[in-house]
Design a protein that fits this description.
Number of domains: 1
Low-confidence stretches: none
Radius of gyration: 21 Å
Strand content: 5-15%
Mean pLDDT: 95
CATH class: Alpha Beta
Shape: globular
Helix content: 25-40%
Order of helices and strands: EHHEHHEHHEHHEEHHHEEHEEEHEEEH
CATH superfamily: Glycosidases
Largest sheet: 8 strands, parallel, barrel
Distance between the termini: 15 Å
């Protein structure tokens, strides 16, 4: 069933999303310290190295640190009303545990906010987006240590004091549930995954959840009108067959992700998670103060959506899929991207309805997009990328977003991931492109860093201008 009469609501926020470590570059400029990304030159699939290496494309990224004004002007040309970006923790506190912040780092984000304000673009700020200071990983074992709560609180307090009057929308942690599958990138936990106990992993998760709730409380106290959201990696999981055992396996996979939203939205641990911890022999150190802090629930739920998965209880039927960070089983009836991510527009409608019915909190799609190999060509004397495949992908997903709105879902906005080409988080390469804007840099670090508008640039500009009315 399709409802073509429903439109996107007035004031719907349209824009794009990025992360500091994937586009800024300037990894050692103006007092910035090293982050965990500086020892991840090959992305999440390879173990971290000892220190920065020349093959780490993130050291330069796409040089947003020096070209932010040019890039924001291009976003404005598309009609963005919101831009999601993150503030690099190690640019503000180089080691993460200092008493005082780095003024040069703070001043950079002042300049970014100046440009956004000049163009009338609302900032959506992620406080921690896979870029924990390396010192906190090496010295404290990241979020496995309770001490990180205090360091994160100081970081967030500094941001609220400096930018609180300029930023309304805040996200505490990017894809917080990804720590289950990428403990170093997501949680800065230096213990090798094969040696990491469930006890230490879930204690680290608890520390992050407490920190998120504490900072939510702080934002409400310090920033009048602040809207604070959690951010979840959405990966809807379908049973591979109608076998009830497969249905249960899918439900259990969903529970692993629901838990993070349930705690953020309801302020307490759900019963199914308590059972999981009991059966794993995990006894968390949860203080009375922790329980009190967790009651500070979020104002909205944001999430990334790229693909869906299947699950089965039959080991013989398991063929691992490539979707984002999670494993699961590839869906036999759906096509996949060049990187093996299942393409499932209807899954986005399912997630929107599922999350809305479960939490009754406004939702925000803060990542969605297609990573693909783009070719720069000349059309009518202009260099561009004819990325009809990206237009088709985004159109089909946004049609399903419109359907979810017709279903009654309260949705704040949509920020397409990697609105300008940037370094991939999963593979740390540049050939996996998401943007409406092509950046001339390749996997070997060669290129002019010049920007070129893709065909999808004009398409997205028209979508925004019509508030989604032109979607096919």
């Amino acid at each position: 069933m399709t409802d073509t009469t429903t439109t996107f609501p007035e004031g719907f926020l349209w824009g794009g999303a990025t992360a500091a470590n994937q586009l800024e570059g300037a990894y050692d400029e103006d007092g910035k310290g090293l982050s965990i990304q500086d020892v991840m030159p090959k992305g999440i699939m390879a173990p971290p190295v000892e220190g920065p290496t020349p093959d780490n494309l993130k050291q330069v990224g796409i040089d947003f640190y020096h070209r932010y004004a040019e890039d924001i002007a291009l976003f404005a040309e598309m009609g963005f009303t919101v831009f999601r970006f993150s503030i690099a923790w190690s640019r503000i506190f180089p080691n993460g545990d200092e008493e005082t912040p780095n003024e040069e780092g703070l001043a950079f984000y002042d300049r970014v906010l100046d440009e956004l304000e000049k163009h009338g673009i609302e900032p959506l700020v992620t406080i921690s987006h896979y870029e924990t200071p390396l010192h906190l990983a090496r010295t404290y074992n990241g979020w496995a240590s309770r001490e990180l709560i205090g360091f994160y609180e100081r970081f967030a307090r500094t941001l609220f004091e400096r930018y609180g009057s300029r930023v309304k929308y805040w996200l505490t942690f990017n894809e917080i549930n990804s720590v289950l599958h990428a403990p170093f990138m997501s949680g800065a936990i230096a213990t090798p995954p094969e040696q990491l106990s469930k006890q230490d992993l879930y204690q680290a998760i608890h520390h992050e959840l407490v920190a998120s709730a504490l900072v939510t409380k702080m934002a409400h106290e310090m920033v009048p009108g602040a809207q604070v959201g959690c951010m979840i990696l959405a990966m809807p999981t379908y049973p591979l067959t109608p076998d009830p055992e497969d249905v249960l396996a899918a439900k259990e996979a969903e529970h692993a992700n629901y838990a993070f939203g349930d705690i953020h939205c309801r302020g307490e641990y759900p019963g199914y998670l308590l059972r999981t911890l009991r059966e794993a022999g995990v006894e968390l150190d949860i203080t009375d103060e922790d329980h009190e802090i967790l009651r500070n629930t979020v104002d909205f739920v944001s999430f990334s959506y790229y693909s869906s998965l299947c699950e089965t209880a039959d080991p013989a039927k398991r063929t691992e899929g490539g979707g984002n960070i999670f494993g699961g089983v590839q869906n036999p009836v759906l096509k996949a991207s060049e990187w093996g991510w299942t393409i499932d527009p209807v899954g986005l409608r399912i997630v929107l309805n599922d999350y809305w019915e479960r939490w009754q909190k406004p939702l925000f799609i803060v990542e969605n997009g297609l990573g693909a190999v783009d070719e720069l060509v000349e059309v009518d004397g202009i260099e561009t990328v004819v990325d009809d495949y990206r237009i088709d992908y985004l159109n089909d997903h946004l049609v399903q977003v419109r359907e979810a709105i017709a279903d009654g879902v309260d949705l704040l906005g949509y920020t397409s991931w990697g609105c300008i080409d940037l370094v991939s988080a999963s593979t740390a390469e540049l050939k996996k492109r998401y943007g409406f804007i092509y950046v001339d840099r390749d996997n070997d670090g060669n290129g002019t860093l010049e920007r070129y508008r893709k065909k999808s640039f004009d398409w997205y500009r028209d979508v925004i201008a019509s508030n989604g009315a032109n979607l096919a």
